[in-house]
Amino acid sequence: MGRTTNPVTGEYSRDFDLNPFSYALNTSRTLTPYDENGNLEYFTRNYAPFNIIDELQKNTLDLTQIDFKVQGEGQYKILKNLTYNVLGSYRYTKSGQEHKVFDDSNTANAYRAGVYPENSFIRDNNRFLYKNPTDPDAYAVSVLPNGGLYYTNDDFMKSFFVRNSFDWNQTFNEKHIVRVFASQELRYADRQNTQFTGYGYQYDKGGTPFIDPNAIKQAVEGNFNYYSMVRNFDRYVAFAGTASYSYSNKYQLNGTIRYDGSNQVGEPAQARWLPTWNVSGSWNADEEEFMKRQETISKLTLRATYGLTASLGNATNSSLIVRSSSTLRPRLSEIENRLTIASLANS
Hints:
Blueprint: E1 4-5, E2 12-13, H1 20-26, E3 43-45, E4 48-50, H2 52-57, E5 59-79, E6 82-101, H3 106-110, H4 120-125, E7 148-172, E8 176-202, E9 208-209, H5 213-221, E10 227-247, E11 251-262, H6 269-272, E12 273-284, H7 289-292, E13 301-308, E14 321-326, E15 337-343
Antiparallel strand pairs: 1-2, 3-4, 5-6, 6-7, 7-8, 8-9, 8-10, 10-11, 11-12, 12-13, 14-15
């Protein structure tokens, strides 16, 4: 299972950790997997029988992935010194994760320990059992009386990318070199993640689900979603231009301007568009005649630049970020939707 963090102590914990490497490092060598007759030997874990070898057979994780990409590039010489270039790509990727927890695994039995067979001590201390918050005198019950668990986690992405550019360069009198470059980029990506938890899936009875309503009730009251879907839309466009001039390979002057736009940085126009620019110049002093007449210095270039440099980066809070969630209430009838300010506007 995924690890959780204790916000008070900062400790990490993970329910039903079946990592063989972690188990080998942290388990006493007195807990042997086999008895003297060669049979599996079980110990108690989560109030239920546990054997690492048997448990690895009753928990499977299937991973699937499809990644398909098509990319093409074309170039056309419009004039002798003017070239047009286009680059385009399309990508489709989908990855899936299936976690199957079988009926008689330690994980599934932990959700029943103390109820079947009845044991008042285990029943009162087993945190995987469910106690109705509206009835303080009621006994804890199992939300998984039959079957096992079935988890899925799927990721999907579809993206496009297009870049157009023009490149013009010209040399005059073998001394004056001029180059102008302009480009435009467009990026479009849709991402989606879905997760699902299936309760009571009976692997040994033809896959028939045996669903106890308390399983859903327990998850909702604990502010856990038994399914979710998260979607993300990335839109990006950029325009850029560069001009440079060189004289006799001694003096260079360059200028660049960019105009980037992204929907990831909020709604205001002044936030989602990022203009940057710079001007620079250099002097290759080693190309001068007086430098060629000496042998002490072999290379000497002086450079200077001025401009504004920035990056859209990971910032996403140029406008107010409000996220939706559900309130954490002890009774199902009191749970309602809520809006939370995740981040104030960063102008």
